[in-house]
């Protein structure tokens, strides 16, 4: 059997490597990968909205005016259903998020957060960002008697200074408000989230009323669920109570998932509730 003539040297090298690796982990965790979060005040969302809507836009000359406007600049078609009025909507907020990587991080969301509604494409773009490190984006259109969730969207997360924007792309729209007295059938969509397969199931469960500023508001209860049982699993239940315009009046979300990373599998958890404070936006 062969003899390792460099046994001692190999032991020293390995030991030195372990020490250096341990020091590197300490430095990365305490210097480079320190985590922080910053609340996005509702007033900041209002200022940002004002800046966006007052930005000068290019006006085509007679020579360059096209016969039809590009799809993303057309006025929303609201002939059947009025979509939410553009502006910033204030929500009472509870909950937070956490990950178990690098010793773990837990964040609480602020007591108030905002959903910003801006005109875009065939309807409106909505953005919820309670923290500078956390944001959700989605779009609504109303081509008929129901409000439809559009195929694209995004989720933004930032931990330890590492930002990640995960884009959502689905194979079709989902009707999220009830048409007349009939519920929409259950809709399963084939989607990608950050280029990975993602299969949410949407259900429209019924009609009810919720109170906002002391008055009843008619709402549709829509629920999204994700049940993924593979190695990198996800379990999500999101209950949305939407005004006829598609504006969220109440939201309850509970999600947990396991994802790969350079430091091994990471478990993410998020639970939060939103309650609309006024049907009129802040502008």
Structural account:
- The protein is mostly beta strands and 283 residues long.
- The protein has one domain.
- Helix content is 13%, strand content 47%.
- The protein has 2 helices and 16 strands.
- It has a 16-stranded antiparallel beta sheet that branches.
- A hairpin with a 6-residue loop joins β5 and β6.
- The longest helix has 26 residues.
- The radius of gyration is 24 Å and the shape is globular.
- The N and C termini lie far apart (81 Å).
Index terms:
2 helices; mainly beta; 16-stranded antiparallel beta sheet; 283 residues; disordered N terminus
Order of helices and strands: HHEEEEEEEEEEEEEEEE
Number of strands: 16
Helix run count: 2
Shape: globular
Helix content: 10-25%
Distance between the termini: 81 Å
Q: How much of the residues is beta strand, in percent?
A: over 45%
Rg, Å, rounded: 24 Å
Structural class: mainly beta
Q: Count structural domains.
A: 1
Report low-confidence residues grouped into runs of 5 or more. Answer: 1-32, 56-79
């Amino acid at each position: 059997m062969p003899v390792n003539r460099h046994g001692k040297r190999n032991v020293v090298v390995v030991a030195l490597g372990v020490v250096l690796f341990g020091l590197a982990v300490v430095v990365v965790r305490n210097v480079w990968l320190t985590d922080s979060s910053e609340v996005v005040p509702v007033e900041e969302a209002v200022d940002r909205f004002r800046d966006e809507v007052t930005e000068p836009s290019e006006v085509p000359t007679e020579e360059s005016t096209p016969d039809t406007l590009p799809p993303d600049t057309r006025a929303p078609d609201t002939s059947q259903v009025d979509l939410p009025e553009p502006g910033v909507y204030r929500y009472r907020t509870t909950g937070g998020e956490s990950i178990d990587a690098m010793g773990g991080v837990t964040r609480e969301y602020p007591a108030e957060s905002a959903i910003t509604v801006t005109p875009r494409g065939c309807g409106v773009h909505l953005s919820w960002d309670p923290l500078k490190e956390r944001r959700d984006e989605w779009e609504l259109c109303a081509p008929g008697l129901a409000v439809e969730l559009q195929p694209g969207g995004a989720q933004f997360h930032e931990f330890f200074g590492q930002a990640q924007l995960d884009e959502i792309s689905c194979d079709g729209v989902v009707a999220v408000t009830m048409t007349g007295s009939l519920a929409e059938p259950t809709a399963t969509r084939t989607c990608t989230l950050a280029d990975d397969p993602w299969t949410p199931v949407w259900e429209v469960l019924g009609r009810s009323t919720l109170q906002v500023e002391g008055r009843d508001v008619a709402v549709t209860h829509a629920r999204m669920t994700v049940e993924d049982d593979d190695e990198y699993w996800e379990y999500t239940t999101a209950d949305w109570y939407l005004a006829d315009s598609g504006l969220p009046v109440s939201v309850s979300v509970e999600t947990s998932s396991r994802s790969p990373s350079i430091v091994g599998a990471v478990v993410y958890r998020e639970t939060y509730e939103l309650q609309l404070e006024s049907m009129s936006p802040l502008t």
